[in-house]
Amino acid sequence: MLKKSQFKEQITLAVTGASGSGYFLKVLQSLVESDIQIYLLLSDAAKIVLKTEEDEHWPDDVEILNSFLQTRFKSKPEQIIALTAKDWFSPVASGSSAPGKMIVCPCSCGTLASIANGLSNNLIERSADVVLKERGQLIVMPRETPFSTIHLRNMLTLSELGVTVMPLAPGFYHKPQTISDLQDFMVSRLLDHLKIQHKLSKRWCE
Fold first, then answer.
1. Residue 32 near residue 75 (C-beta atoms within 8 A)
2. Considering all CA atoms of the chain, what is the largest pairwise distance in Å, rounded to the nearest integer?
3. What is the CATH number of the domain that holds 155?
4. Global pTM exceeds 0.90
């Protein structure tokens, strides 16, 4: 595994089964282009949604998947490190080695609820729990409508813990012409919060 110094920084990127796979693909590509090393966590449901929404057929075998991702996103060797749900001894599962920043995009309301209640039933939830307990930066990007009172209460719980809750709800003042423009809007807001420079979309009044 490459040392931290060989990349600008490390970020954990988790993907769940909520709709919005196009956002995730744009986030991953943007992080690669920004010379970030990514620990990638995909739920089984996320893989199904990827096939359904984006016609992306990713290998199930993690070794083959890592090779596939390097080619698919033109990344450096080991820049994208895909992990399985059973990788409990991976860096993201321990407070002594996990990246200080984590994104869940898109974030299902089920995963959001589990994180808010500290369940840690899988590696995604455990990784989020680690970032919370270590006082790192956690950004969750739910894609659901309408939000139930339960959803909103869970978001409030996370917000009170310092989590940034960033629903996938793009604006329109930049006059988007394509779906990609809408995705760029949200990914640019995410990168702003991560303090990562980009040129994805125009800012207000530009």
1. yes
2. 47
3. 3.40.50.1950
4. yes
